[in-house]
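Box 3.1 A note on notation
Throughout this textbook, protein chains are presented in two layers. The first layer is the amino acid sequence; the second is a token string describing backbone geometry. Keep the layers aligned when reading.
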Amino acid sequence: MRLIILHIIAATVSAFTINPTIRSSVPATSLSASAADSMAGKSVELGSTVWDPLGLADLGSDKTLRWFRAAEVKHCRVAMLATMGWAHTCNGWGKIVFPGGNSLGSDPWKALDGTPDLGIVQIFLAAGLIEVLTESVLTGGKHYLKEGDGHVNPLMFENVPDKMKDKELKNGRLAMIGIFSFFLGDAVPGSVPLYPTEWVH
């Protein structure tokens, strides 16, 4: 199961294949102004700009940029859930006990391996349902690829300020780094500073 998860993670990289329609006005290696600088997600630490050393925000059209932002927001949300889930499991706070009396324990990988096949199916079906609804029903008639800044808003909050979007993006970016550090800290003990030794299995 661990290999399946790692293959799924690796497969998501293909989602970022460069669109053949490339804006020629800004070189891909530009460290200056980015098309994303007008969107939420800017860093005060970088002079209120978006950190985009490869110029990815300048690839393709405005629709492409909105798609990049939507992908980032979705990955941020999944990473935040994964980070909290990992910490929650490792601390032994949410040991699910199945009818047979077996507990998933406090090792996230063993918990995944111990989840019944139908449980895995339910997880994928729930994720797929959320994705379908986000792309169809939960748009409020305004799909994120057609207008706006690409910030996916399935709960259809109105007039979400950029400050709130900034908070979500920054926490999500940190969570993406966090969950991969958890994976690495578990796989290679001692490789991640401050990773709790009691979390290593």
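The mean pLDDT is 80. Residues 51 and 153 are 23 Å apart (CA to CA).
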